[in-house]
Write a structure and sequence with these properties.
The protein is built from two helices and four strands; from the N terminus they run βββαβα. The mean pLDDT is about 90. With about 90 residues, it is α+β, with helices and mostly antiparallel strands.
């Protein structure tokens, strides 16, 4: 969790699966965007993953316009695009 000016302004979650870490849910509140908070959150996650013995980290995001800022942020942090994929759902 990131705090600035006495307010929670962002968060990032992750999981460890052997030597692979996964950056999961993460966001920065719109009023705090553009201040480098996402970068600080990601760097903290990377440090924790390294400490846990991870050798790589992955992240998944949408290809829609709403996820454009997230894709740009991940690319700035050095993530490289992998093969495009599609996720299917079925109602039960």
């Amino acid at each position: 969790v990131a705090e600035l000016e006495g307010q929670i302004c962002g968060f990032a979650t992750f999981r460890v699966e052997g030597v692979l870490g996964t950056l999961s849910e993460n966001a920065v509140a719109s009023a705090f965007r553009g201040r480098g908070i996402a970068r600080l959150l990601y760097e903290r996650v990377f440090a924790q993953l390294k400490e846990a013995g991870c050798q790589a980290v992955s992240v998944t995001t949408g290809l829609d316009d709403a996820h454009g800022p997230a894709r740009r942020a991940y690319e700035k942090m050095g993530f490289e695009k992998a093969l495009p994929s599609i996720r299917y759902f079925r109602k039960l």
